[in-house]
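Write out the bound-state structure for L-homoserine.
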Amino acid sequence: MLRIGLIGTGTVGGGVIAIIEQKKAEYREKLGIDLELACICAKTDEEVAPYKAKGYTVSTDADAMIANPDIDVLVELAGGYNMPRKWILAALNAGKHVVTANKALLAKHGHEIFPLAASKGLHVLFEAAVGGGIPIIRSLQEGLVGSTVESLSCIINGTCNYILSRMAQEGLDFDTVLKDAQRLGFAEADPTFDIEGIDSAHKTALLASLCSGHRVDFEKIHVTGISKITAQDIAIAKELGCTIKLLGIYNRDGDRVDARVHPCFVPQNHLLSSVNRVLNAVYLNCDNLGETLQTGAGAGRMPTASAVVADLVSLARSIDTGKRAALPMGWFNVENSATLVPISETSARYYFRITSRDERGVLAKITGILAENSISIETIIQKDVNDPGNVSIVVITEKVQDCRASKAIDAINALPEIVENSQVIRFLA
Ligand code: HSE
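---
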């Protein structure tokens, strides 16, 4: 029997309780395991009252629940940093396994949590932390071990994907869709973590760490969000046979790791381009397997809860058989940090949208700067904008190193005819 101490009765916590109630008998009968909700803990009496009424043991004292020897695993679904960090470290020190959906905590404090768990032979499972219900963590840890992941590109923020999809499908601007997404509950009241790419960076750091076997520090990876993507960028992308997606990217580069988060032009024939609205997807290129795409609901009560319960079932089976040790995650310590490829050394085809006064000679100045920086132009288009006297000049470059693209765009932005900072977006391929 796996005796579960659960902290958090919110959206995901409530879903976990519901799934355990729904599937408990089936697990016992088909898998021979018994998931026992031994204690349900939340901040207030009001939050735990419905569960108390159903006969569960409840608590508002997380520390006492963690210290209780009758708990085998702590399920942390409260969110945040400080208290969950304290609870998880306390649970591990008390010899209990941990299941959590808290990607922000793991990205920030994984270097404390995983080595401690490894030193004690305990499991820390976090399937729900990346891609909601998509079993991508287990795939990387188990299903894909016959291959090496050479590269990974993922859509792992449903809020951003929802906004970009609606902008593309309805021709709307960013602010209009964001407000509507907030009204419909697809975006938080404070959407910063999502739209500025921070949530994607947490998840990308975890995936890149699993792929590389080295700790990827999310604070060191390049992050650009989607708040500056305009309806015009989306329309031009469409004309060029692309969609714009916010991607988390991992590439193996010898002994180094290229991990980053930024919007990308994704060709419409790429598997990721048709992943729309709140769907998440992880596209992998592996040496032996080749290409694979895993897609599904990246957030929400039941999809996320289903990943948490899958971790609990896996844990119960490991403990019951006594055969499966915890997967070694001790490599997630600071001494084993990945050497990251600086963004300036990465290469891509680039989209520049330059807004300029409509004056003679400006195009020659722009192409001159590109030539000075050895940047080859693939396409150049001039577009009228709804702004008399100004034009948009769209340049698609051939593959170029980021440092040269940045130097050129800085020089272009400094031209007196340029009316606003230019838009810069990389192509996925
Ligand atoms: N805020 C996240 C998203 C869901 O929009 O995808 C939780 O990871």
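---
The longest strand covers residues 242-253.
The radius of gyration is 24 Å.
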